[in-house]
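Submission sheet (multi-component)
Chains listed below:
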Amino acid sequence: MEALFGGSFDPVHIGHLVAAEAVADALGATIRFLPAREQPFKRAAHGATAEQRAEMLELAVAGNSRFRVERVELDLPTPSYTVRTLRALAAREPGNRFTLLLGADAAGELSGWHEVEALPGLADLVVFARAGVAIPHHPLIGRVVDVPAVDVSATLVRERVRLGRSIRYLVPEAVRGYITAHGLYR
Ligand code: ATP
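Outcome: structure written.
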């Protein structure tokens, strides 16, 4: 099973990785991290470029044979509507059925999605439970997977960098090195 885990990943952190590993385990799935060029629901300017976010993801997935980075959205027009992305993947990989992973917060926004009615034809939906967020009810949600609660967000990581605080253990070491080397989030 091929599961897509979309997000801005600005930057990828242990909350994403722990959740993805738990889903890979529960579903026997391969996880493709799908960095968005621009999130339709996140209009704020990104701290890192799309290319930098993808590079940090490459560093984060290295060594995990069930993880990879899917760069398809980086070449699509913005904003990165999920339905548009799924169509591009279907065209590139005909016959491949995808599972779309959503955090509970993202699942709560489903009704506002561009062309949400086309989703069932394009992918199955799996929601993973994130700490402190209730699971919304939506007819398209097929399955809910519990993941270990990790109370880390990219906002927290960026804020800590901005304040000169340590982000060690909040992101993989290679990602931490990349953030320092590129002077991100200062
Ligand atoms: P930001 O703080 O910038 O809003 P974020 O940490 O929520 O970012 P995103 O890239 O927006 O990260 O997240 C992509 C997906 O990962 C979302 O569906 C979100 O629910 C999920 N996610 C983010 N952080 C965690 C976490 N700590 N545990 C489980 N899932 C998470």
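Remark: The pocket of adenosine-5'-triphosphate is lined by residues 7-10, 15-16, 19, 102-103, 105-106, 130, 147, 150, 152-155 (CB under 6 Å).
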